[in-house]
Structure formats: structure tokens, C-alpha cells
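Hi U.,

Before I forget, here's the chain from the pilot set. I'm dumping it here mostly so it's searchable later in email.
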Amino acid sequence: MTDVLPSLPGARTRPGAILVMLLLEAALVISWSAGFVGTRFAVEHAPIFLILLWRSLASGLLLLPLALTVGPKLKRRDVLSHMLFGTIGMTGYLASFALAIEQGVPTGLVALISDMLPLAVALLSWPILGQGLNGRQWLGSAVGLAGVLIASGASLEFGMVPLWSYALPALGTFAFALASLLQKRSPAVAMPVHQSLCIQCLTAAAIFALFAWREGRIVPIAEPGFAFGILWLVVVATFGSWSLYYIALRKSSPARVTAILYLSPPVTMIWAWLMFDEALSLAMFAGLLVSLAGIMLIARSRKTTTRDVNADEPPPSPGS
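Structure:
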């Protein structure tokens, strides 16, 4: 806790400032988990690509006036770059974990696999950034993977959930890691988050519209469950989580914020248990602890591998 005190004026003598920071971090973890829970709720009311279409489109359109009037003038090269990042990162990430949830993969397990971003970044850093893994990173990768296998083995539902669907969250996490690393080495000028997020959301919406059309519908469903699900995903999972993330970064360190986000999988598991009666097991929590140990090994082994990526770009939109 001492690492946040210098960032809070008067925090050394004000317990209230510490309490505010703890409440902020708690809200961040809850909103970070909200994307997975919101998607789990929404798939009971609409096809998955229709949900993703209107989540992305609503978010992008709400940000569009701000993106056009606040911040530097948008240049064609930068817009095209962020359209590429939106195609690889946001589209690939959201579609992969949402499809996994739709297929019946436990929501908490999807959150756990999706939270393995540091492992994915570490593995992709060598071919993209020329940064090879050191011994501790290889060990952390192996430990993290072992934890996912432990948790996955405890939740496999043979004959009920297609086995290939368990690979979807991993593919989505690697897609987001790839987009983050490509953006890090891109010559495009960095733009404010509301502009980059707007471009990426609208890009994702255009792609999801094609898949929604193939599913048979692009018009929103006039049903309270669908409207509530989209509202939840836009307000809480997209705007809420990313806003809280950047507020937390200003008041604390990237290392602490990243570590706090590792609490999102158990919170998601508890939400899914309370709301959807998804099973909890000791093996799932054991796998979670093993995975977190592996992630911490990776995160502490080289500052430039994960902390820079998480500090420069929005992390995987929690279900975001």
C-alpha cells in the first residue's frame, strides 16, 4: 500500500485518502469483471454477434462527437492504424471470449484465461519486439499455463461444451496482445484514448455487423433484457472500467493497478455463481492461484515487457 501514498497528496497523514484508493480499486475490479458477466447475461436474450455489434456501435457513436472536437486533428494514417488495431485486438478479443461464453465455457474460466495477457505479451515480444524470454519468464509462462490447465480440467463438461471452445479465450488474449505490441511499435502518432477507442469501436462494429447479418439480424431486439445487456456492457464494462483504469493509473503505479486486476477472475467466478448458478470448485480456485503466481513471475521479470504495454494502451476491455 505504501506505493500509492506518494501519488496521493497528504496521504501519509490522511487515512481517508487510503480508503478512497481502496474503494477506487474495488470499483475497478468489479467493473473489469462486468464485461464477462454482462455478456453472459446478454447471450440469453440475443445472438452473440448482434450483442457485439450494438455494444461496439453504441460505444463508438457516443464517443464520436468527443473524438472529433477534443484532441488533435485526426490524420488518415493514424486512423488507418487504429482501424487495424481494432480489427486485430478489439474484434478478435471480444468475439473470442463472447463466443466461448455462448458455447457454455464457464464465465470465470473465460475471465481467467483472458487475464493471461502478460503471458501472451511475453511470448509474442520476441518475434515482434525482438525481446527474448529470460529464464524467469519461461518459468512464469509454464506455471501460468499449468494453472489454466488445472482450472480448465475442473470445469470441462464433456458432451455439453465443444472442446474447441475452450481455446477461444486464449486466441482472443493473443489477438489483443498482438494488437498491443504492434501498436507499441507503430510509427502512428499516439492519440488520446477517447479517439483511439472511438475508432476501434466503430471498426469492430462494422465487422460485427457482417457477422450479425449472416446470423440473420442487425436490428436491435425490442426486449428489456437485450436493452439492459447492451446498456450494461457500454456504460459499466466499456466506459466505466476504462475510466476507472486510467484514474487508478494517475493515482497509483502501473504495477499495482495490473496486480489489482488479477483479482477479476475470482470476482467473475463469484458473480457467475450468484447470478447464473455456475459451479465453483476448489480445483478452479487452485488453478487460479497457480496462474496468478505465473503471471506475477512474468510481470516482475522485465519491466518493459508488460508494464509498458499496460501503461500505454487500454488493457483488454474486461469483457470490455
